[in-house]
Amino acid sequence: MEKDTDLVVRHLGELEALAEEVLSDKQQIVDLDRTRNGNREAIRSLMNKEQQNKSSQSKSWVCFGEMFVKLPGESAKAILKQDQVKLNSEIDRLRKDLKPKVAKLRDMEGRKEAKGFDLTALSKDELKAVDTR
What we know:
It is a single chain. By secondary structure, this protein is mainly α. It has a single domain, classed as Helix Hairpins. It contains 3 helices and 2 strands, in the order H-E-E-H-H. The model has no long low-confidence stretch (mean pLDDT 86).
């Protein structure tokens, strides 16, 4: 009887730890997506400012963490674009790693596998191959 209780407690502990990982990953995706959207807005703002001034020599204040830095518009855009690439790859990695965790969590809960959850989008080359126009 005591062994059964230990087994149940261990199983519930593993289940809770995995659920916490899933929730943590989801929250991290949301936070990174917010940052990505902020960067997108900043890049667009810099492009609008550049068009209004008709010059790429203007400088803009950019916030990095808790520090503001005045940079030339082109440098600021380049840094933000590099940051966008890193954010995109991190979000993609988290989403890719999240799928097996959720599948394992559903399995541990004794629920059926989610249909279509493990689908991935077609690449540009695959879309071109499928396109019949």
